[in-house]
Specification:
Layout lengths: L1 E2 L3 E6 L2 E6 L5 E4 L1 H13 L1 H12 L5 H14 L3 E2 L2
Antiparallel strand pairs: 1-5, 2-3, 3-4
Helix pairs in contact: 1-2
């Protein structure tokens, strides 16, 4: 995963706001989503998943929750394959 082109990210405390410069849509990321997004951007999905597990714990549904979050970010155009 990598950031989709045309996105401007502003980090505010532990949250993030992502502006789509083409559509002019604004996406608000709550603290857990902002952490996941930052880790994916910096380290890629697999490394981010490992770091998130270490940070948040290893609940049985954790990987499914992260996968659903990433799917949502892809659907909204915040992340793309690559």
């Amino acid at each position: 995963m990598k950031p989709a082109p045309g996105k401007h990210i502003e980090w505010v405390d532990q949250e993030a706001v992502v502006l789509d410069t083409k559509s002019r849509e604004i996406h608000y990321l709550n603290p857990p989503a902002a952490v996941a997004y930052a880790l994916i951007l910096e380290h890629g999905y697999d490394e981010a998943l490992g770091r998130l597990k270490h940070f948040f714990g290893t609940e049985t549904a954790f990987e499914e929750d992260v996968a659903a979050l990433v799917d949502d970010m892809v659907e909204k155009g915040l992340l793309v394959e690559g």
